[in-house]
């Protein structure tokens, strides 16, 4: 597994009065599920996007395992980091199977390996492969789309998974179910997960540790759910 280290990480968007993320230092252990919880606008998405190199930090460093991500080539990064987002981010013109196959294809897996992997991933997230692989995203419910989003993020078996409010767009009952599934998955897979939410209950339910963030991603508390609930 690979841990993640954020060292004095800062993002100041050009033209904004204050940094979105200001001097954040944090260590996430290999195999740990850490939840970043805080109000809308406190810099959670910005932090995840920097880890995924979708945006460049203004200053500071990010290490995954013993590697500085700044120096990592994009294919290596895709192998290392899976990314699941609120809207599920599925491409509407691609089938479920094509969406899940995206990163494995990008990193050069063989067609037969990809085909098996797509089935395996659909099973993993509780969707019948025969029924779902040929469907388009519009032919799925919101909860099914989120499942496919998680399947896609896991497809290339990355040691690190970044999840940005991945269950934010579904009804409370489906969300509860997807949360249970994530807990079950994590017991099997032991990924290093950074999970972002503004929902404190979700943080308490899912986190091995929880970072409670204030504005500019200033860390108010970083501890286990038990410790946070008793403080
Ligand atoms: P969160 O994920 O916690 O809701 P974000 O990381 O999305 O917070 O945003 C943090 C701050 O950065 C907010 O004030 C937001 O308006 C600002 N911000 C986000 N993206 C951009 C951008 N591309 N350009 C300028 N400001 C941005
Ligand atoms: P495009 O530039 O056409 O959006 P990308 O190659 O950047 O294509 O990514 C395709 C999709 O793969 C993205 O929409 C994203 O949701 C998903 N994806 C899976 N893993 C990652 C990752 N580590 N970083 C960014 N996107 C990822």
TrEMBL record:
One example of a Gene Ontology biological process annotation: glycine betaine transport
Entry's Gene Ontology molecular function annotations: ABC-type quaternary ammonium compound transporting activity; ATP binding; ATP hydrolysis activity
Domain ABC transporter: 4-231
Top-level taxon of the source organism: Bacteria
Entry keywords, A to Z: ATP-binding, Nucleotide-binding, Repeat, Transport
EC numbers on record: 7.6.2.9
Protein's UniProt keywords contain NADP: no
GO (cellular component) term, any one: membrane
Keyword Repeat: yes
Membership in a protein family: Belongs to the ABC transporter superfamily.
Protein's name in the database: ABC-type quaternary amine transporter
Organism per entry: Streptomyces benahoarensis
Organism taxonomic ancestry: Bacteria, Bacillati, Actinomycetota, Actinomycetes, Kitasatosporales
Residues of the full protein shown: 20 to 250 of 428
């Amino acid at each position: 597994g690979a841990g993640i280290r954020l060292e004095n990480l800062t993002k100041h968007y050009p033209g904004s009065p204050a940094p979105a993320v200001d001097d954040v230092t944090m260590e996430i252990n290999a195999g740990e599920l850490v939840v970043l919880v805080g109000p809308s606008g406190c810099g959670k998405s910005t932090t995840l996007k920097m880890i995924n190199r979708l945006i460049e930090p203004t200053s500071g460093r990010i290490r995954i395992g013993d590697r500085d991500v700044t120096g990592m080539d994009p294919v290596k990064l895709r192998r290392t980091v899976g990314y699941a987002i609120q809207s599920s981010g599925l491409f509407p013109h691609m089938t479920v199977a094509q969406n899940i196959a995206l990163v494995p294809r990008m990193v050069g897996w063989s067609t037969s390996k990809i085909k098996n992997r797509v089935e395996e991933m659909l099973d993993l997230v509780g969707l019948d492969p025969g029924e779902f692989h040929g469907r388009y995203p519009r032919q799925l419910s919101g909860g099914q789309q989120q499942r496919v989003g998680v399947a896609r993020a896991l497809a290339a078996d990355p040691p690190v998974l970044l999840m940005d409010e991945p269950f934010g767009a579904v009804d409370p009952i489906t969300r509860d179910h997807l949360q249970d599934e994530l807990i079950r998955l994590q017991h099997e897979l032991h990924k290093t997960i950074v999970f972002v939410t503004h929902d404190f209950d979700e943080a308490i339910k899912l986190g091995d540790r929880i970072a409670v963030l204030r504005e500019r991603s200033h860390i108010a508390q970083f501890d286990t759910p038990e410790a946070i609930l008793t403080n």
